[in-house]
Here is the input.
Amino acid sequence: MTQTTYLLIAVLVSGLITFALRALPFAILKPLRKNKFVQLLGQWMPAGILLMLAVVVLQESIVAAPSKWWIVLAASGVTIITHILTKRRALISIAVGTASYVALLAAFG
Here is the structure.
């Protein structure tokens, strides 16, 4: 076998394996779409992941500056209220919450 043939076979095999690995999740996902458990996971996982992220970030912020715990809680409250008032527009609530956190840190930090 020549080196060129060997390289062509290696590229072909690599391409087939890559294609199979990329197509496999879609092939598996199709029958699972009607599964009640998968639907339930799809409904609750995003909120659960965001909750864990929020807890970690808030905990790290409070540990980093224990005397400024009230700033973290006030900015979190502003974020939650903005999120509710803007009918769950995440980008607006994140922007307003971040701006309030930075403003409170600048004013009282």
Observations:
- The mean pLDDT is 91.
- The chain has two domains: 1-34, 35-109.
- Residues 1-34 form one domain.
